[in-house]
Amino acid sequence: MKTVENNYETDSQKILSYQQANGGEFWATADGNLLKGAPFTTIESPVYLLDLGMSKDDSIMLKCQEKIFNTWMEDGRFRLIPKGTIYPCQTVRALNTLCKMGATSDERLQRTFDYLIDTQEADGGWKCQKYSFGRGAETNYSTPMTTLIALDCFRHLDTKAYEQKLNNAVEFLLQHWDIKRPIGPCHHGIGTLFMQGEYPFRSYNLFYYLYVLSFYSYAHKDLRFLNALEELKQKIQDGQVIVERVVPKLAKLDFCEKGKKSALATKRYNELLKNLGVG
Length: 279
Description:
Organism: Enterococcus termitis
GO molecular function: transferase activity
Strand content: under 5%
Distance between the termini: 33 Å
Helix content: 40-55%
Number of strands: 2
Largest sheet: 2 strands, antiparallel
Keywords: Transferase
Protein name: Prenyltransferase
Number of helices: 11
Order of helices and strands: HHHHHHHHHHEEH
Radius of gyration: 18 Å
Shape: globular
Strand order of the largest sheet: 1-2
Oligomer: single chain
């Protein structure tokens, strides 16, 4: 079976070589934690491989999908960490990976989407009630990163039934462009690190922010979105995306080498432009 595009075979083999590095199978820990061991986890590694061209029907993908679904709960949440509180960021990460694996139509995920709609905050976002930095005024806001990933999930649906709710989430993120300062319990801000475009999409940053928002027409003509887009355009060289930030363990892989042009990151950028009707 052809696993990935020939250009990225070395990268894929490197990622696959970490399958048991965390003590369990398919990048999990021995006790079933699917988030520990970043950036090579059960939640993240399949997404890298999909970007590299692995088929959604590959046996590894199907086994990872099963492993993630095994953590699904009847109320729609996912328990990715065997013990402890379940936070919305964990549920949206699991949902996002499953959507990218092509499982969006699974009836269990519909319950998860319903759970997200039912738990949306008044400001339009989703909030992880974990106050590692205390309870300052900034924690009255939802969590920008969790909200961004939630919107990344909903883009895989026909969202007409949720349109106003999702527009509220988009508005929350657009407001953060003006606020700039760190908000939410996890203190996500728009500063130097945010402005460094990251690929693969792993954190709250300019490139991922714009990519996700581009799927929502509510943002397309908004001045805040357009100003952010102009900042990204200033970083494009000869039509190519330069990877400015990447987690160290991924930095030497060809598809996302730091400081180099990335064909796959550029593919995402072109998708963004297409969503705006200019690509």
